[in-house]
Design a protein that fits this description.
Bound molecules: farnesyl diphosphate
Structural class: alpha/beta
Radius of gyration: 19 Å
Length: about 240
């Protein structure tokens, strides 16, 4: 019974992960090019980052570009890459000032070399910060990440650094791109789609999900605050019995 009591608690969402969906639809509905929706999406990213400290969100993970997003038109992919470059260039000083620790997850080897270098540069620049741990998933897929983590573990077993029986949840977690980060408490998805879309498949095993009927460019700081308040009234049981 002691376990049951431990498993029941009123949580605060300290790690929030977001699938920022619906930029394209938002733009097309307004007769604008899809990239205008993505540019608007960057403004919402800024707002959400700014809102985190007041909402006691210490970790924020954003799905910016999936392993499947390479299938989009060449123009849209190039436009998104331009936005990522511009974001790093324009926001790096502000991120430092706000104490944001930025890290990227995903298979970055497929990105252009100069973007990879910018990502490594801003990660290093912000590595001592601890006010907000911001993780941006870029060329990220949950299955791809699990495969890469498994390969890292297998290489250690082959090198005699790990034994088969030492492989457990903690070992696999530590070898994921997110190694060292806590699991997300709350996963939000905008655009009305009710899908997980290969996002944090391993890490979100016990997360709460909230699917919102608005597109990402309409996701204001107020909506974010409502989501956090809503989460904070839920009870998480981690598989324990009700009552
Ligand atoms: C999904 O909308 C959104 C994306 C694929 C890109 C998300 C990127 C940003 C919000 C911009 C930059 C982010 C950072 C961290 C600087 P969609 O195009 O799939 O929308 P649709 O489903 O309506 O077509």
């Amino acid at each position: 019974m002691a376990n049951t009591r431990v498993a029941h608690f009123k949580p605060t969402a300290s790690h929030v992960a977001i699938i920022m969906d619906g930029n394209g639809r938002w733009a097309v509905r307004r007769g604008m090019p899809r990239l205008a929706g993505h540019a608007k999406g960057v403004e919402r990213v800024r707002d959400v980052i700014k809102a985190c400290p007041d909402l006691n969100v210490s970790h924020l993970t954003l799905y910016a570009f999936s392993t499947e997003n390479w299938k989009r038109s060449e123009d849209e992919v190039a436009g998104l890459m331009r936005l990522f470059r511009r974001y790093i260039k324009k926001e790096s000083a502000k991120l430092v000032e706000a104490g944001v620790n930025l890290r990227f997850i995903g298979n970055r080897m497929r990105l252009d070399r100069d973007l990879q270098e910018m990502m490594a540069w801003v990660e290093e620049l912000t590595s001592d910060n601890d006010k907000l741990y911001l993780t941006v998933a870029l060329d990220y897929g949950g299955r791809d990440e699990i495969i890469r983590a498994t390969r890292r573990v297998a290489a250690k077993v082959a090198a005699g650094e790990l034994t088969e029986s030492q492989i457990d949840e903690a070992t696999l977690s530590a070898h994921m791109d997110t190694g060292g980060l806590p699991d997300p408490d709350l996963v939000l998805r905008t655009s009305g789609e009710v899908r997980v879309s290969n996002f944090l498949l391993w890490q979100a095993a016990y997360a709460e999900y909230n699917f919102l009927d608005i597109c990402w460019p309409d996701f204001t700081a107020e909506v974010f605050a409502d989501c956090i308040r809503n989460y904070n009234t839920r009870e998480r049981r981690f598989g324990a019995a009700v009552g």
